[in-house]
Amino acid sequence: MGSFADFYRRSIEDRDGFWAEQAALIDWETPPRQICDASQPPFTRWYAGGRTNLCHNAVDRHLATRASQPALICVSTETGTERTWTFAELHAEVQRMAAAMLELGVRQGDRVLIYMPMIAEAAFAMLACARIGAIHSVVFGGFASGSLASRIEDAAPVLIVSADAGSRSGKVVPYRPLLDEAIRLSSHKPGAVLLVDRQLDAMNLIAGRDHLWRTLREKHLNSVVPCEWLDATHPSYTLYTSGTTGKPKGVQRDTGGYAVALAASMKYIFEGKPGETYFSTSDIGWVVGHSYIVYGPLIAGMATLMYEGLPVRPDAGIWWQLVEKYKVTRMFSAPTAVRVLKKHDAAWLKKYDLSSLKALYLAGEPLDEPTAQWISQGLGVPVIDNYWQTETGWPILTLANGVERAASKFGSPGVPMYGYNVKLLDENTGEELQGAGRKGVVAIEGPLPPGCMQTVWRDDARFVNTYWKSIPGRLVYNTFDWGIRDGDGYFFILGRTDDVINVAGHRLGTREIEESIASHPNVAEVAVVGVADTLKGQVAMAFAVVKDASALTDEPARLKLEGEIMKAVDAQLGAVARPARVRFVTVLPKTRSGKLLRRAIQAVCEGRDPGDLTTIEDPAALQQIRDLLAA
Ligand code: ATP
Ligand code: MG
Q1: Which residues sit with their C-beta closer than 6 Å to ligand 1?
Q2: For the AMP-binding enzyme C-terminal domain, which residue ranges apply (predicted)?
Q3: ipTM of this predicted complex?
């Protein structure tokens, strides 16, 4: 590959040449006529004129060389089941699912909403949609009927694929009643519902609407459904952002550009080899699940491990036991999951043979240094931070190969990936911030590389106005994250643009304050928000979860710990960054994807309405904060 710097430069300076080369990583029925059509900015059409299929590239393409190798491994510690499908077996299941969809009236361009737990049939359904050119819209299985209803409304699906139930921590979580309620709430009614019966919860089928997967599968046991060759720009799916900063946005992705982007990222970033096993601990309801549970590893000819269960059940060694058993080479997880493991004995990281594992990739939230150190020392493999968004589909910033990885810096996800023309801009003037050490908005100069969002589903105006017109004077993609670049070109993400606190004229990133609080040995997790203050403009408020709650027996003890934490902040950042209060809670409000809901905490602190909370994990967490403030 030569030096990464040269590789990167070429991706920007010879964009079409570079991406024409990457296009050869996948199979095309018709090669593209044009590489990048950027004639109508900010819209970009990648590989126009080309025809391909995601399912072909993920499954069929491998049959000639690895039909009998593992493709999909599903482990559920909830139901105690474990099963492997080879590429040939996956091919057969996907065709059965595709045949069932066709029978239920699904045609190319129709939407299929997938509301499923982490079971094999969820992957079959996604791949079956890709096979026949239906647009899938996967909704995280943990969402309740209200969030589901708004997504049904938006996607207007011909078919919904679901199951009787999921399971969490050994407790059955029925899906079917939530689905029925969501369909009732939605003005759009799907033509059909296809249900996987896991025999976890009783289901009464609604005649004429509901169909059992088991029955249709039997009927289509030998059905042959060829891949539809689709235009490269044909939408493959829609997916909602996590809703951390507001109402979730429906991201629309294409087909050809996405396939190429994933194939390239598997080669240059994740370095997965055919025949190896990839284990991403995410959920198919999130972008990581789309790119790096289902499509990416399979496109690379790897087996992908899908896991239903908690990281600490039956014990905190379960993931590492799976790494040993399936000889996982590449693993993908999130800082929030590592923080859960960190509450348990580090000896679990040493109990199993992890010699197959080459790297652990983490994304989704800033990776704080204590967490990064703990996991990388425990596992003895490189821990690679990568920064991206639902919108982009694959990493914007990370470290692409051996050269850069050797120089990894804690706290930095790394450097811009090929194809991403990343800039730091002044939020108010749009001026480009050159040189090192200047804080700015992380922005991407168009055209966005292949794999990134085409538009907001059915809302081009929102795509243009939200993402491209928020920085004065230029048409540039706004990530809504703050960053800083050091003299070596490494970026540090300082948090969301709306997570900056202005204390008496000093601009402080909430993340910096959180990091300094987290350096206290008894702090497990912390959220810092800026709260309006008549005197100083804003003050920082901190909410912390402690490791050892015995330090909090009474008010004097709490005040003592609060004082210690404030001293740590004073010492590290200066008194200006010292939070007005540090309050203690047992759990922080997070989205279902594990991201801190700072905007909701801030709203509660300021006595405002917390806004869209449809993606919150545990509403009781916000209540704890309300109670504390009221006390
Ligand atoms: P919404 O856009 O609906 O408010 P969201 O931004 O949380 O929700 P996602 O697309 O799931 O939705 O998350 C992307 C965001 O997560 C990034 O913009 C960034 O703020 C954060 N993020 C992801 N990876 C990293 C990372 N490695 N380091 C720091 N922040 C990260
Ligand atoms: Mg976002």
Answers
A1: 241-246, 248-249, 363-367, 385-390, 413, 479, 481, 493, 496, 593, 595
A2: 512-595
A3: 0.99
